[in-house]
Amino acid sequence: MIIGFNTDIKYRDEVFHIQTEDKGEGNPTIETLVYHSGEILLSRRISYGHLKLERNDMRKKVKSMMKIQHDQIIGELKEGKFLHLLSMETQQIEDEGLDAMVLRYLEESATS
Fold first, then answer.
1. CA-wise closest residue to 29 among 5, 13, 50, 53
2. Please, which residues have CB within 8 angstroms of residue 96's CB and are 6 or more apart in sequence?
């Protein structure tokens, strides 16, 4: 396992924490998580199990892939690509039974 990257980014008065880590040889995956207010806003994973390199070369390659993915997410965040996820985070999801969901669907369909 390779030590990852952690970065806090302030964008439009909101603070985001970006964390990228290697899941290790048993799970050859690079995972980047974007946190906002302690909640995971986004996750991105890429597998590197298909790479057939010597151990030293593998560590260098994985570290490079981690840095690229981490920087890519930061760039996308700065471009505003995740702002739509913030509005989803604040929406309230009501618990309702199946009957209530079907009735609501039928009512909405009748008015369309």
1. 50
2. 104
Residue 46's CB: how many other CB atoms inside 10 A? 13
Q: How many domains does the chain have?
A: 1
Q: What is the distance between the alpha carbons of residues 19 and 74, in angstroms, rounded to a whole number?
A: 10
Q: How deeply is 22 buried, as exposed, middle or buried, from its count of CB atoms within 10 A (0-12, 13-18, 19+)?
A: buried
Q: Encoding tokens for residue 10?
A: 């302030």
Q: How far apart are CA 77 and CA 99, in angstroms?
A: 40
Residue-wise pLDDT tens digits, 13-42: 889 999 999 998 889 999 999 998 888 989
Determine what percent of the chain is predicted with pLDDT higher than 90: 38
* Strand ranges (E), 2-112: 5-11, 14-22, 29-36, 39-47
Distance CA 64, CA 2 (A): 11
| Helix, strand counts (H, E) of the chain | 3, 4
